[in-house]
Amino acid sequence: MTPESSAGTDTPTSGDGTTTAEERLPSETVPEIAANDPAASVDPAVLAGSQSLLLEASTDGQTGAVPFSGTVEWTEGKDELGVPTIKATASIPARNLSVDLTIRKNADATLPASHLMEINFQVSDSFIGGTIASLPGVLLKNEELVQGTPLVGASARVVGSSFLFALSAAEKDLPTNIELLTSRKWMDFAVIYGTGTRAIITLEKDDAADALFKKVFAEWEKS
């Protein structure tokens, strides 16, 4: 199945302002969430113990965002070649929303990506946003209620509310992406609903998940 690319035309630049199109994947622009970040109006005290979190931007831009907390479970899987993968299943019961994530090392030499993230958002017919229409970016951070640092890569809508996020294989991007994934405690999916509402779905990496990431990335490096 051919993905329907949701990537924009902007090409990300490096720290010195230069870029090489052949070395980088076309990356969809991550929206500026900071100016209207739903997390800004949330009291951290109400989130104690939550493992996953959904924050929806207010429609009027005035009222505070309401957090919907849930769970996430990280496990190790295997791909069709027996290579390890990292899997996560998250659930936000209050919104009848769940997320299935698989992170794998890219084995397709024709695809300019180091790793692939397969993200399937499962929504009910009564989901307030209709669908997950866009995945502008994946971000990592060390605190729950701050803006994260985006991974360098490209997002493509595969079908429905399922997406593929391909991490850039460029030599200057690879170490940064790996460092973010293996060292940061929270993973953000910046999404846009079919209704146009922006939201952030956050998954926590507890100590066991942190150890899993380090183990699997070490095995990928050896292979």
Strand order of the largest sheet: 1-9-10-6-5-4-3-2-12-11-7-8
Tell me the total number of β-strands.
Answer: 12
| Number of helical regions | 2
Distance between the termini: 28 Å
How many whole angstroms does the radius of gyration measure? 17 Å
Q: What report would you give on this structure?
A:
This protein has helices spanning 174-183, 207-222, and strands at 4-5, 52-56, 67-78, 84-92, 97-105, 113-123, 132-141, 149-150, 153-159, 162-168, 186-193, 198-204. The chain has one domain (49-222). The chain is globular and about 50 Å long. The longest helix is centred in the last third of the chain and has 16 residues, at 207-222. The protein contains two helices and twelve strands. 12% of the residues lie in helices and 40% in strands. β4 (84-92) and β5 form a beta hairpin. With 223 residues, the chain is mainly β. α1 (174-183) packs antiparallel against α2. A twelve-stranded antiparallel beta sheet has the order 1-9-10-6-5-4-3-2-12-11-7-8. Residues 1-38 are annotated as: Disordered. Residues 1-20 have a biased composition (Low complexity).
